[in-house]
Structure formats: C-alpha cells, structure tokens
UniProtKB/TrEMBL annotation, chains A, B:
Protein name as it appears in the record: Gamma-butyrobetaine dioxygenase
Listed Pfam families: TauD (PF02668)
Keyword Oxidoreductase carried by entry: yes
GO biological process: carnitine biosynthetic process
Protein keywords: Dioxygenase, Iron, Metal-binding, Oxidoreductase
Protein family according to the UniProt entry: Belongs to the gamma-BBH/TMLD family.
Top-rank lineage group of the source organism: Bacteria
Matches recorded under InterPro entries: AlphaKG_dependent_hydroxylases, GBBH-like_N_sf, TauD-like_sf, TauD/TfdA-like
Keyword RNA-binding on entry: no
GO molecular function: 2-oxoglutarate-dependent dioxygenase activity; metal ion binding
C-alpha cells in the first residue's frame, strides 16, 4: 500500500482510497482527542482549525503516521481501521435496502425458527449471544421451557435490556376482559400488526409470554414486514414509494388520560433509503391526511396490497405457545397476529415492551467479550 | 355547502373539497367499523371491497349521509370532522418545516422561560396542562421549589409519563467521579448536545434535577436545535440538505457489557420534510462513513457551521439550578450544555430519561378533560 498527499494537503490517497484531512483529524484516537478510559471524544469540531491540512504522511507496517497543520500535531492510525471506515465509494443501493446484519424471511423460516431454551440463555453467555444474534438478524426469536409464573417475561427482558413502561404498565395481561380498553384484551382474532404505532418512539421490542393456553385457537403468527415491503417494491415500485414517502397517522385514546397520536410512514426509510421501520395496524390507523388528493387512490391501493401480502400464508410463521414459552419480536419490523379463540379453556399471556438497542448492544458486547466472529 | 358525486362514485365533492370513496368508507365511525368503547377500528382494509363507490350523498345540517356500494351500507359523517381532515390541498412547505404546535426560539426566550412551581403542577391539573403545553411547544421547561431529596425527579417524570430505564439506570447521578464511565461525570464543561444519540430510539425526554449546587460554575444552557437548523438552512440551504440527507454515526462503549451504535442524520426530517429530530454530540460522534467522498468536505463545513450556530450566545438560554429545581428538555430537539465547575463546594444533579409521547398524550388528554382551547 502507498500513501500520497493530494489536493494541497486537504486529503490523502491511501492505496487508491481517499480520506479528507478534516475527517482524519476528527477521527484521531490519541489520548488528547479521545478519552482512553471511556473512548469518548474530548474535543469538538470547533477545536480543530478550519483549514486543517496534512503536511506529512508516512506508512510503516500497518500504521499510517500523519502530521496536521496548523496544529503541528502528529497522529498514528491503524490502516485496517481506516480501510474498514473508508467512504470513498459510490452508493448504488436503491430505496429499501437493508443492512448486512438483516436477513429477510417468509414461511420457509418455519423449519428453522430462531429458538433457544430459557435455561440455556440465562446461564450460558455464548448461547445468549447466539439467540440475540438471531433476534437481531431475523427480528424474531422464541424461548421455551421458561418458568410458568407471573412476571417471568421480565426475566426475558433483563437478558438484553430494560422494560419500556407505558400506559399499559410495566407488563400487561393479554386475556379476555369485560369492557376491554384494547381489542387485544378480547378473544377476537387480530390481523398481523405492529404494536403501538401511535407511540413515538414506538417500543422497538415486544415480548409475549404464555402462562395458560388451553383455549381452542389463539395460535400466534409472525410475518417479516421487511420481506413484505420488499415484495411490494418488486411488484409495484410506485406503491412502495407512496407508502414510504407519505406519512400515515395513528391514534389511541381508548382509556382515560391517554391520547396518543403519531404521524409516520408505514414503510420508514433512512434518508439514504435504508429500510428502518414498518408500522401497520388497522385498529389504531387514524385518518390519513398527508397524502395529496392526486395520490390518495394509488396510496390506498398500495396499502391494500401490502395488507394482502402480509395476510398471505406464504409469508407467515405460526405456532401455538405452551405455558413457559414466549416469543420476542423487533416491533419496528416483524408483525404479529393471533387467531381468534373460544371461551372454553383459558388463554393468558403477559406482554411487555423493551428496545432493540439493548438487543444489539448486548449482542455486540458479548461477541467482543467471547471473541466470537461478528455476524 | 353542497355535495356532488364525482368520478363515477369514486369520490365526492363537498363544498369544493374532494374526498375519495375508499377513504370515506375506511374512516366511517359507525359501531360496526369502530368500537364505541375504545375507539379502535374493528375492520381491516381487506374487509372493504376494492371497487367501493358512493351511490348516494345527502347533506342535512352538519351531517353528510353517504351510501356505499357494493356493501349497500349507509354512513353518517360530521362535516366539521371532514373539513378538519381534508387532504385535497397542495403542499408548498419546503424541507425543515415545523408543525403548528412548535415555536422555535433563541436567547430571547430568556425573559419568558416556560416555568412553573413544582407544587402547582403536582396539585392543579390546569397548571400541569399549561406547563406540559409549554414543554410541547418550546421543547423545554423548568420547575422550581421541588423537594430536595434523592429520586425527586421520578415525581417529575410521573407527571406526564414513564421513566425510560437504560444502562445508566432508572436514574443516574451527575457529579464528579473517579474513573468516570462518561465525561458527564466529571467537572468538565460540556458543549451543547443531545443525549444518547447512540441509542435507537433515543430517549426523547431528559430531566436534570438539582440537589446540590454550591460549586463555582456549572451553569446550564439550553439551545433550540430546530432554531439552529433553521438558521443553517437560511444561511446555507446545501449544508442543511447535506446534514439531513446523510446519516451520521454515534457510538458509546464506555462501560462493560455496553456497545451502543446508531446511524441517523444530525438533522432528521420526516419523508415530507417536517423537521423531527436533532442529534448533536461531539463526545459520542463516531466516524462518519455514509457521506460520499465528493460531499464530505461540504458536509464537514456544514457540521462545523451548525456547531458555531449552536455555540452562539444569541441562541442560548442559561440559568443556574438551585437545589429543588429541575429542567426538562425534548431531547430530540433541544440541546443542553453546562459550564465547567471547580472542586470547591459541591454540585450534584440527578438525571433520568422519559419520552415525549407521554408529554403530548397527557397534555392532549388534559386539554380535552378540562375543556381548554387546544394549542
């Protein structure tokens, strides 16, 4: 590899890959720039002179030594780190791309549901890393053989993060109620949906934990919303564009003191097109008023088609939970549904919310700690 | 007002404002469509026939009566509700618009800081509604005269919502520590920042509550990130575009078992250009790798300029908290900073996170309950 100073020191060329002087100086890892203990940056961009240039560049082994002016400061970089953080490339990804760590799925996942035994993940850090890795990758995971006791789902949340408390409580009871404040608390079947799209930010993880399930029916289904959106995009790029370009609205005001409203798209993209979220919930969809008249019919057609894809058995993984079993979903991606159930026997689940950043953080820290290959 | 069926029943014209048949049918509020108890929709779009048209339309007083085919279903609408949800208009808003409920501010807010007495908001629901309304509108509010006791900030969170627990705990101590896991736990001055941009979703509310503050220095400042972004857009539309179009990256791995990473823009826009979030934090900014080489220098120039605007005293509201006082910010909008402080005397704050949806929901429910004019 060779290094050359280019553009009068405003950048360097390292083996054909260019880096700007200001970017390099900002990403210095010396002890004056980054705290050696906690890794946080000790300076702000305002502390780096505006006309910063590279005046000397020298390579030896895996290290690049740069001198910056006007500071007269010398910094050493690991060339492997630099190549891993290179940005001198052309982005050819279209709208709705997903990152390397994401694997979309359909009913074919049925035979390889990301599953683990509760005791294993509670006791063995490698088993936990594996299960969390599946949850990050597929947005879905099951645990079996857990304790059949109230509040056991809080132990599941504690494996990777913290409960997101809401107006429904730290945890909520999913069973038939008289005068239900939410249709989830009835025996009705529920179309596949993401939970609480009327909340902003939505809870990004949901845990549903089974304590009793002798009723007829009440099977659970999960569907990968990213896979459904990809299928819509292939069939009908304009429909995908409409559902991602315009905001839908969601609302819940079903109990006293609560009036939750949001305005977000059904298919959420990062500004560079990465697919980052799905919101789909017929029960709490409010009037859509942010789509202009000229696009509303096509928007509704796309909304209908997305629902048909979501309802397609070819997309669905289904199972019936036994007491002591639970499933966990990335609620910004994977929809869940249940079949209606009858009044004979009993069905009692407990639910709670948590967040995906805890899943990803705990997984990344375990991978590092255990020296596992990063996924 | 007059009503006419147009486009072979696929839409109606109500006093010059058009509505589609499918939109109208989907937004019916009759007891078969919406649960009269909790307001949730009982049907999904799949339950409404694809070729739905209006076959009869009749107006009387404030009610519009429509008949839909092929269902043969008659539904009555409040015309006031329809006009309030009209979507037959042209959107002329440019990137970075903010909603009606948002008022951006600069140092001029100093003389009218949204402030209330702790006892008032704790006891009087109208006072609470007023204070929460200010927090929603300005993204910032102070409370004075609260109890000087550990954990008092949890009472503030309970006024409107629920604590967002994180790896820092349900609450965290902000005071000088030996071997700090975060630079916040030192006497260093901190540039104005939003908290935890490496979390996804970020905590959307932060509460900082003062228990001791006899140290010299340690004043707090708050800055309206939306106002700063608006100023950047006026000075340099391309810089605003770059900071909103490309993702930055943030990271925190300063303590064991934690490895939080995010990829989000510094200025976040909804797909239709609404400004919905600011992320700005020099300490946890990671290498920016999603900006192509050709745009990186201009991106850095915009990043620098945004920081200069944020640092401009003309944008800043500052104050020194006394024991029993706290401030609350919308952490997706308002940045906070502190001046460095010395070792003489003591400074002890407690902090916790919560979410803006609780602020907006509690405020909206109080406005409704008390019959106040909605802001």
């Amino acid at each position: 590899m060779q290094v050359a100073i280019i553009d009068e020191g405003r950048a360097i060329d390292l083996g054909g890959c260019r880096f700007h002087a200001i970017w390099l100086r900002d990403n210095a890892a010396d002890a004056e720039t980054r705290d050696p203990g906690n890794g946080q940056r000790l300076i702000a961009l305002r502390d780096i002179p505006e006309g910063t240039v590279v005046s000397e560049a020298r390579l030896d082994d895996a290290a690049l030594h740069l001198r910056f002016e006007p500071e007269g400061k010398t910094v050493t970089y690991d060339t492997g780190w630099l190549m891993a953080h290179a940005y001198d490339r052309v982005d050819t990804r279209g709208p709705g791309w997903t990152g390397e760590g994401i694997e979309t799925w359909d009913a074919g996942l049925m035979t390889r549901i990301p599953n683990a035994a509760f005791d294993d993940v509670a006791r063995d850090r490698a088993a936990l890393a594996g299960w969390l890795g599946g949850l990050a990758r597929f947005g879905f995971g099951k645990l079996t053989g857990g304790p059949v006791e109230e509040g056991a789902l809080l132990k599941v949340a504690a494996l990777f993060g913290y409960v997101r408390e809401t107006n429904y409580g730290r945890l909520f009871e999913v069973r038939t109620e008289v005068n239900p404040t939410n249709l989830a608390y009835t025996g009705l079947g529920l179309q596949a949906h993401t939970d609480n799209p009327y909340r902003d930010p939505v809870p990004t993880v949901q845990i549903l934990y089974c304590l009793e399930n002798s009723a007829e029916g009440g099977e659970n289904m999960v569907v990968d919303g990213f896979a459904c959106a990809e299928r819509l995009r292939e069939e009908n790029p304009r429909g995908f564009d409409l559902l991602s370009r315009y905001c839908a609205r969601f609302e819940y005001a079903g109990s006293g003191g609560v009036c939750l409203r949001s305005r977000r798209p059904m298919i959420e993209l990062a500004p560079d097109g990465e697919m980052i979220g799905i919101r789909f919930n017929n029960r709490s969809a409010a009037a859509i008023t942010d789509v202009p008249y000229a696009d509303m019919e096509a928007y509704y057609a796309a909304y209908r088609r997305l629902g048909e894809i979501i309802d397609d058995p070819a997309m669905e993984v289904s199972f019936k939970l036994s007491p002591g079993e639970c499933f966990v979903v990335n609620n910004t991606r994977v929809l869940h549904a249940r079949k209606g159930y009858s009044g004979t026997g009993s069905r009692w689940l407990q639910g709670c919310y948590a967040d995906m950043d805890g899943v990803r953080s705990t997984h990344a820290a375990l991978v590092q700690e255990l020296g596992l290959a990063a996924e």
